[in-house]
Amino acid sequence: MNEAKTPHPSLRNPCKAVPAPFERRFHEMSSDSPSKRPMTVPRFMAAKEQNRKLAMVTAYDFLWAELFDSAGVDGILVGDTLGMVVQGRSTTLPVTLEQMIYHGEMVARAAKSALVVVDLPFLTFQVSPQQAVENGGRVLKETGASAVKLEGGVNQQRTIQALSDADIPVMAHVGLKPQSVRKIGGMGRIQRDEKQLMADARAAEEAGAFSIVLELIPRELAKAISDELSIPTIGIGAGPDCDGQVLVSQDMLGLTNGFQPKFLKRYAELYRDVSAATERYVQDVRENIFPGPEHSHD
Ligand code: KIV
Fold first, then answer.
1. Which of 98, 179, 182, 193 is 20–30 Å from 155 (CA)?
2. Per-residue pLDDT at 147 exceeds 70
3. 9-267 has which fold?
4. Element (H, E) at 76
């Protein structure tokens, strides 16, 4: 029998193959082609001075991270939204550090150009700056990601400072903070406390954050914060004047059926398309249309 094995998709195009450790190291060192250069924390920060908007999405596994990376995103966030969009929970609170490391490692291995940022989940940094450094350090060591993200501003200033002092790049996150869901009583409410939000953003920058997510705040306030800070602001539900944008990829691709907040633009309707494809497959199997002769071995 002449069984030609179909190579794994990542091996069909040698340019897309995942580099072995040595090649990856060489790749990280080479810097002749700016478009191919891996995004680093300093380059991410420099984008603001260069007036270049930053596009980020979330990803939680190798396949999607490879796809988004190839499509040219600047950054991939391994968000603790994985509790909701991957695990099917109603909040991010149950997500553990081990789970973030498990998913973060797959994403960082797939991303050849994008900056990979991994969320510190609930109660893995709030206890003390020391706890945050130990856990943030584990994330960098065990996943290969470039940075961690944590929710907080003024209330996490010492922690951001401690991480930054330990050379663990930190992206802060202010505005709507999903890990505070029990305290604020729900999600989806626009955050409008201008004084507090500006103070949070300033505190994060002063403490050494290299970037900051602004979630669900009015456009004018996001603009004021973006003008005030020298680090890039990454908005989600914060209008067009942020220095970059992030969306949960399942929302952006229309996989989270029925979730349609005002800020969300869907770039595909994958829930509909995948449902239709699966229904066709089921029908083909039941009617003995698949597999046909062209899918069968002599
Ligand atoms: O966890 C996450 O995916 C996030 C984004 C919504 C910014 O924090």
1. 98
2. yes
3. TIM Barrel (3.20.20)
4. strand 75-78
- Phi and psi based region of residue 256 (left: phi greater than 0; alpha: psi -120 to 50; beta: remaining): beta
Q: Which of 3, 215, 220, 294 is catalytic?
A: 215
Q: Is the Cβ–Cβ distance between 233 and 47 less than 8 Å?
A: no
Separation of alpha carbons 77 and 11, rounded Å: 25
Q: Is 215 a catalytic residue?
A: yes
Distance 77 CA to ligand 1 centre (A): 7
Reported in sequence order, the residue ranges of 122-281 that DSSP labels E, i.e. its strands, are 147-151, 170-175, 211-215, 233-236, 244-247
Rounded CA gap, 100 and 121, in Å?
A: 8
Query: Could you identify the atom of ligand 1 that is nearest to the CA of residue 77?
Result: 3
In the prediction, which pLDDT does 21 show?
A: 55
Q: Which tokens hold the place of 283?
A: 């029908």
CA of 272 to the centre of ligand 1 (A): 24
What does the pLDDT look like over 57-107, one tens digit per residue? 999 999 999 999 999 999 999 999 999 999 999 999 999 999 999 999 999
Predicted confidence (pLDDT) per residue in 245-294, tens digit: 999 999 999 999 889 999 999 999 999 999 999 999 999 999 999 999 99
Q: Whose C-alpha lies nearest to ligand 1, atom 4?
A: 79
Asked if 254 contacts 270 with a C-beta cutoff of 8 angstroms, the reply is yes
Mean pLDDT calculated for residue range 112-122: 98
